[in-house]
Amino acid sequence: MTASYIALQKTGKLKRRADKASAMLASCAVCPRVCKVDRLAGELGKCRTSSHAIISSYGPHFGEEPPLVAGGGSGTIFFTNCNLKCVYCQNYSISQLGQGDEASADKLSTIMLYLQTKGCRNINLVSPSHVVPQILEALIIAVDKGLTMPLVYNSGGYDSVKTLELLDGVVDIYMPDMKYGDEQTAKRLSGIDDYPETNRQAIKEMHRQVGDLIIEDGIATHGLLIRHLVLPGGLAGTESVMRFIAEEISMNSYLNIMDQFRPEYKAYDVAQLSRPLRMQEWSDAMELAKRCGLTRIARPQPGLRLI
Ligand code: SF4
Which of 13, 92, 167, 290 has the most beta carbons within 10 angstroms of its beta carbon? Predict the structure, then answer.
C-alpha cells in the first residue's frame, strides 16, 4: 500500500504545498480560529504552539479503529495542544495542559520513519489541525528517506478548508470528529460557537478529496471515517449530525459512534456531564443513525464502559 503523497513529491508539488503552509504561520490562519499571531516569531495563539510542533508521545497503537490497526498497529503521533477547549477532553493532559516536547522537522520525520520500520499500517496524526505546516515540512524529509505509509488525519473536526486543500492528495484517510449539532453547545463545551458550520464544511472538503472509506482485506486504504462521541443528555446533537451525514455526505459513510465518554477534566462543572454515558443513550444514538439510513457503523470495542 503506497501513500498518495509520493506522486506529489515527485512533481515538486509537496514542497510547494509545504511552503504555502509555512507562510501561513507568519499571521496564523492555519485553523479556523485565525489568530493572526506570528508563530514564526514565537507568538502564541489559541493552540499555544509556536513554530515547532510539540509531541506528547508516539508508537504503534492497537486500540485504534480496527481497520487502521490490522497487522502492525496504527503508527500514532500525538500532537500536544489543540485548537478546541473541550471541558470534558478525554486527553486533557496532552490537549490542554501542554504535556510534550518540541520536535523539529527532522525529529518528526525520524518518528514517521521509525513507525514505518515498526511495521505500522499508517502514520496516524492525532490532533494535527494546528500543526499542518510542521507536518508537511517533516513529510518531505521523511519521503526523501523512504516513507511510504499512508497518512491518517485524525482531528477534532475544527479544520480550515483552505488548509485542508493543501492536503489534497497528501492525506489518504481522514478521521475527523463531528462533535456537535448546535452552536450554543459548541460554545459552552468547546469554547467555539461556529463549530457545527465550520465542521460541516471541513467534512465536505475531506469527503470531496478521498470519498467513502475503502477497506480491503480488513485494512482501511483510503477515504473518510467519521467519529461521533455520544455525550450524556443528548448534548452531542446526534440526530442533527447523522442527518447531515446521510443527506449531505454519503449514505455509505463509515462511522464510529463512540461510547467512551466519562467525566474528565472540567466535566464536573457541567451538571449533564458529571456522570458516564448510559447504555440507553448510546443505543438511542445508534438507532438514530440507522433511522437516517446509515449502516456502515463500527462495531463497539469489547468491554463497554457504559452504565
Ligand atoms: S493554528 Fe493556533 S495560532 Fe493558528 S489560527 Fe489556529 S489556534 Fe490560532
Answer: 167
Q: Which residues of 260-279 are buried (b: 16+ CB within 10 A; e: fewer)?
A: ebbbbbbbeebeebeebbee
* pLDDT tens digit sequence for 255-289: 999 999 999 999 999 999 999 999 999 999 999 99
Where does ligand 1 bind, in terms of residues with CB under 6 Å?
28-31, 33-35, 37, 45-47, 83, 130
* Cα separation, 28 vs 170, whole angstroms: 21
Q: Is the pLDDT of residue 1 over 70?
A: no
pLDDT exceeds cutoff 70 at 307 = no
Which of 24, 34, 35 for mutating ligand 1's site (highest number of atoms within 8 Å of CB)?
A: 35
**From ligand 1's centre to the CA of 47, what distance in Å?**
5
The CATH number of the domain covering residues in 5-27+47-291: 3.20.20.70
Domain boundaries, the chain: 5-27+47-291
pTM, two decimals, is 0.96
Q: What is the pLDDT of residues 15-52, one digit of tens each?
A: 999 999 999 999 999 999 999 999 999 999 999 999 99
**Cβ count within 10 A of residue 259:** 22
Q: What angle do CA 195, 56, 112 make, to 5 degrees?
A: 95
Our mutation pick for probing the ligand 1 site, out of 28, 131, 161, counting the most ligand atoms within 8 A of Cβ, is 28
What is the number of the ligand 1 atom nearest to the C-alpha of 131?
Answer: 1
Instruction: Report the separation in Å between the CA atom of 80 and the middle of ligand 1, taken as the mean of its atom positions.
Output: 13
